[in-house]
Amino acid sequence: MQKSEYQEIVLQDVETFVKEEIRPLSSLIEESEELPKNLINKMAAKGYLGACLPKEYGGLELDPVYYGKFTELIGKACSATRTLVTVHTSLVGQTLLRWGTRKQKEKWLPKLISGEKIGAFALSEPDVGSDAKNVQTRYFRDGNKYIIRGLKKWISLGDIADLFIVIASNNGLITAFIVERDMIGVSTKPIKRMLAGRASHLAQVHFDDVIISEESSILGREGGGFDYIVSTALDYGRYSIAWAGVALAQEALDAMVAYSRKREQFGKKIHQFQLIQGIIGDSVTKIHAARSLCLKAGEMRKNSDEEAGIETTIAKYFSSKVASQITAEAVQVHGGYGCSSLYPVERLFRESKVLEIIEGTSQIQQIIISNYGLRKYYNKDIDYVNHHQKI
Ligand SMILES: Cc1cc2nc3c(=O)[nH]c(=O)nc-3n(C[C@H](O)[C@H](O)[C@H](O)COP(=O)(O)OP(=O)(O)OC[C@H]3O[C@@H](n4cnc5c(N)ncnc54)[C@H](O)[C@@H]3O)c2cc1C
Whose Cα sits closest to atom 25 in ligand 1? Predict the structure, then answer.
């Protein structure tokens, strides 16, 4: 069987799974603010927790393009379940695959993919967000041991995770550690009443002089925590969030199309009003553009193109903005009902806002993209600046 044929079959299977197992639970998941363990286990049994990870560890080995489509399918039905994929599979699983030693990979990847262990990525802190190099969580060397001390905040899956990739600093030397929940000194406190991510088991995680006894618990090398681990993890995360944006925007569009075809005012279906048609026309166009950017980034990632990272950043920036715009328009099309939790657009509207904040805020993406543009499009062969003086 050709790889593309195999991947198509996997996606068809995912589509059925989403329809039968995730979509019917999405309201319950939101209300209970919990991802059912049973659902996590079913996803694990299908190999979905390792959708993009190698078969040798139990994964499905989808290439970046298919992994993106996979993320969209899950994200359309339930953001919390998609968060599981983004954090557990992308940020933790893919980063471990990229930088872990053979021993670390053999120890952790099969457990992550089988759902035996849940992973979380602990970078943000109460006083440190975008300026991530400034992490205040400290680590010290004590003989052949390391001691970690600090507090992490907004950690998705933090309340149910079994292992954390923790970013800590020793006088500016930033290092990533693999820390297990059952180590002495690790404690978590759930964060509730969030705008979005209510069922993502957000937590603050306290590391109270946690002793890491083995050097093998460092991910990558000492001092490589930012340039290698954080950069890699955020790159994987951004790719996932780019597709999450497409997912929320498409779900919102589907909902507004259905509603506008049913709702009547002034004796007409509301989709017959040109102002509503304008909203739908713009939404379709923006989603097509966002999906094209995601597909392009996916192809470039598949081909290890050296500009895949910046293309991913562009896709994430655009797609998360588009998701915010379209979900807001979907609420508008639904009128008062759009403000009610009886309709899904209210949840989509809330969930989309967060995509502009996580894995680097929109402003941070703009800075990165602008720096790229200022280099890439600086054409010294044409004198744009003094052009008018020569005319
Ligand atoms: C639902 C949710 C889930 C999350 N999950 C995780 C997780 O699993 N792991 C984790 O480590 N973190 C997680 N986070 C934290 C998230 O990564 C941070 O919120 C994000 O990095 C932004 O940091 P901040 O909130 O401290 O905002 P700040 O960095 O304080 O930014 C505040 C505002 O200032 C702007 N700003 C900052 N610096 C600049 C600048 N140089 N130029 C222009 N504008 C600037 C920002 O764009 C933003 O608008 C999560 C957050 C949420 C809400």
Answer: 129
| Domain assignment of residue 387, yes or no | no
Residue 106's pLDDT is: 97
Number of folded domains that form the chain: 3
In a domain, 386, yes or no: no
Contacts of 187 (CB under 8 A, 6+ apart): 205, 206, 208
CA–centroid distance, 78 to ligand 1, in Å, is 22
The pTM of this model reads: 0.97
Q: Is 156 in the pocket of ligand 1 (CB under 6 A)?
A: yes
Q: Whose CA is nearest to atom 45 of ligand 1?
A: 363
Fill in the DSSP letter of residue 234.
Answer: H
Dist. CA 154 → ligand 1 center (Å): 9
Q: What is the mean pLDDT of residues 230-241?
A: 98
- Contact indicator for 176, 232 with CB cutoff of 8 Å: no
Report d(CA 34, CA 32) in Å as an integer: 5
| Residue in 46, 38, 53 with CA at minimum distance from that of residue 89 | 53
Residues 262 and 351 in one domain: yes
* Structure confidence by residue, pLDDT tens digits, 331-365: 999 999 999 999 999 999 999 999 999 999 999 99
Please indicate whether residue 197, judged by its CB atom, sits closer than 6 Å to ligand 1.
yes
Identify whether residues 235 and 363 lie together within a single domain.
yes
Residue 381 lies in a domain: no
CATH of residue 75's domain is 1.10.540.10
| Whether residue 372 sits in one domain with residue 241 | yes
Give 62-114 pLDDT, tens digit per residue.
999 999 999 999 999 999 999 999 999 999 999 999 999 999 999 999 999 99
Looking at the structure, do residues 215 and 327 belong to the same domain, yes or no? no
- C-alpha 16 to ligand 1 mean position (Å): 35
CA distance 26 to 377: 45
The CATH number for 248's domain is 1.20.140.10
Segments forming the whole domain that contains residue 294: 227-376
Euclidean distance between CA atoms 62 and 54, whole angstroms:
8
Quick one: pLDDT at residue 341?
A: 93
Q: How many CB atoms lie within 10 A of CB 67?
A: 27
CATH of the domain at 207: 2.40.110.10
Residue 84 sits in the same domain as residue 194: no
* Ligand 1 pocket test target in 125, 130, 159 with most atoms within 8 Å of CB: 130
Active-site residues: which are they? Answer: 359
Q: Which of 131, 154, 359, 365 to mutate to test the pocket of ligand 1 (most atoms within 8 A of CB)?
A: 154
